Amino acid sequence: MAALDTLRDVTTELLVRATRGISVGSLLNADSGRADTRARIDDWAGVLSLYAPENESRSVRATA
């Protein structure tokens, strides 16, 4: 009976650690993704400003 309790405790501890690791990894991936997206938006904003005078003469509308 004691062995079963020990196995249950170890299994629970492993499950908790694995879940915590997955959650931390997900948060790190989300943070990294947001940073990459922000950098790409900033890059495109810089490129778009090069073409702004050309686009002012046209009326372009985008919808999502």
Explain what this protein looks like in three dimensions:
It is built from two helices and no strands. Helices cover 84% and strands 0% of the residues. It is rod-shaped. The chain has helices spanning 2-50, 52-56. With 64 residues, the chain is an all-alpha fold.
Question: What's this entry about, in short?
Answer:
The protein is an all-alpha fold and 64 residues long. The chain has helices spanning 2-50, 52-56.
Secondary-structure element order, N to C = HH
- Gyration radius, rounded: 25 Å
Number of strand elements: 0
Mean pLDDT: 81
Count of DSSP-assigned helices: 2
- Shape designation: rod-shaped
Query: What fraction strand?
Result: under 5%
Distance between the termini: 62 Å
Largest sheet: none
**Helix/strand-derived class?**
mainly alpha
Topology of helices and strands:
Elements: H1 2-50, H2 52-56
Give the key terms.
64 residues, 2 helices, 84% helix, rod-shaped
